[in-house]
Predict the structure.
Amino acid sequence: MPQPKSTTADELVTVRDLFRWAISRFNEADLYFGHGATTALDEAAFIVLEGLHLPVDQLDPFLDARLTLAERRRLVDLIERRVSTRKPAAYLLGRTYIQGIPFRVDERVIVPRSFLGELMLGDAFAGDDLLPEGPGAVESVLELCTGSGCLAIIAAMRFPNARVDAVDLSPEALEVATLNVAEHAMTERIELLRGDLFAPVAGRRYDLILTNPPYVDAETMALLPPEYRHEPELALAGGEDGLDIVRRILAGAPDHLNPGGGLLCEIGTGREVLEAEYPNLPFLWLDTEDSEGEVFWLSEADFR
């Protein structure tokens, strides 16, 4: 009697087996990474660990663990869908992390990967260099282009005395943000507002404005890999040179900042263009582990 044909899930037994196989499949398929992972190895680790509901930063303790057939089939399916659909892994799993903090994501929002999370939770606001009275004195924060709401939530964590307004033009994005705000028990401190930049907060002023607006230029938009095509274009495209929305934020920020406050903004690779166009603004560029000259700070006094 002929034996039933074995499947990939039958042949791969341990976490190590699935992890190795995923890396091989991703390299073979020449996938593009950049949505929380930058290599096939990191992407494979994320899919395997998140797919098994394990801590996403602890692969080694589980490498030789044997998996149930149901678990193996689930991982094989996730890995194959990553290859066949070219969707970012975060969409397939409905989850991503910023600085170890989990957030829900799906194709209604871009996969969050802003440098602002690292800056806010790191040393940028640890002293009084940016905010003279320190983080504890921050009572009001505005986040523009909030998307999934992750930065608004991180801001509420970092500035415990602040109320946060989070604005986005997309009603679909705000649906996801609503889920994240509730999941992190921030509904009493974060107000989600639909509208175009400062329009929903006319007349309000803030101690801190932060934003990771769309800033991909037209040439780059035309060349985006398939993984990025699954993300909302509204959240990526920043006009011909990528700075259309940044210019509007710079124009509106002075009318919405309290004395002693400031604007924290991520712009991608447009530093030279911005500095040439605004020679009177003393941009302070804040670097992160993976970026240089892509985030600026301007105090309220810098706009005077």
User: Anything to note?
Assistant: The first helix runs from residue 8 to 11. The radius of gyration is 21 Å.
